[in-house]
Amino acid sequence: MDKLVIALMIGVAFVAFAAAVIYGAMRLEHEVPNEDREFLDPLPKVLRMQWPLIRLVDYHLCQLIPKRMLAGPTETLRLAGLLYLMSPTQFIALCLVSLCAFTGITMIVLSWANLFNWLLVVGVASLGYIYPRIWLKESLKKRQKLIVKALPTYLDFLTMSVEAGLNMAGAISQAVAKGPSGPLKNEFAFVLRDLRSGLTRADALRRMDQRVRIPQISSFISAVIQAERMGASLGVTFRAQAEQRRIERFQIAEKLAMEAPVKLIFPLVAFIFPVTFLVLMFPIAIKFMQSGVRF
Fold first, then answer.
1. CATH number of the domain within which 171 lies
2. Could you tell me if 199 and 254 lie in one domain?
3. Distance of CA 95 to CAs 57, 89, 121, Å?
4. CA angle 58, 61, 67 (to 5 degrees)
5. Closest CA to 87 of 135, 50, 49, 40
6. Which DSSP letter does residue 231 get?
7. Reduced to 3 DSSP states, what percent helix, strand and coil does the chain have, rounded to the nearest 5?
8. Tens digit of pLDDT for each residue in 212-249?
9. Burial category of 229 from C-beta neighbours within 10 Å (exposed 0-12, middle 13-18, buried 19 and up)
10. DSSP letters along 63-118, please?
11. Do both 88 and 165 map to the same domain?
12. SS (H, E, C) 162-173
């Protein structure tokens, strides 16, 4: 009877604790102000499911982080083109939510398998905190590759527009209207917006350089600014830059092609060669065994 009462009390206490946690979470969520995402980028499906919890952590915890500690995430988000997707404090909240999720899932799986290990839990928790940063760096690399890939095409549009008699703003407007979609199109649209707001061409292009921080873009902007200062033809400058960017892209492709055989050595030695030798030696071994020869 005493055991039944104790079990009943434990069950009631657990239910009361769960109810208190749920009630507290609902109260905390109710305090979070609504977010207007009309002029922000749409959230991916995975982030959309976690977003209420991320905003809860952001509002109650991450807003207390000093601004000097947010300089790194702010710069990386800006270079990756994700500053219109989430704020730096929301990114820190995403890291904390990912840490808790990885830790909780790992503890449940290890407890269920009766293989609980604190060292493994700490390792997976660290991975959970680092994983959003890995995703951010991969997004940055992907964006930079897309910009470098589309740059010669946009330089061709600028060359044709300038040689047809348009000024710099008109050429950029035609490139944005006719060019392929992607991050470079958005960057030229920002340049066009800066030009229409009254900034000089040099300042608008320098702001673009600060937003992307890519050597090819920096070289292109330096050449354009230098051509304007020296009074040289922009059409000739754009054509030379387009040709140079194509040569660089071809050289990168050659480099990747030459690296491919080196990268294939490990899969060949570790996986393909053993299987090939097994297939070739198996019939020979069977014949030796049938003839009475023992290994």
1. 1.20.81
2. yes
3. 10, 10, 16
4. 80
5. 40
6. T
7. 80, 0, 20
8. 999 999 999 999 988 888 887 888 888 888 888 888 88
9. exposed
10. GGS-GGGGHHHHHHHHHTT-TTT--HHHHHHHHHHHHHHHHHHHHHHHHHTT---H
11. no
12. HHCCCCHHHHHH
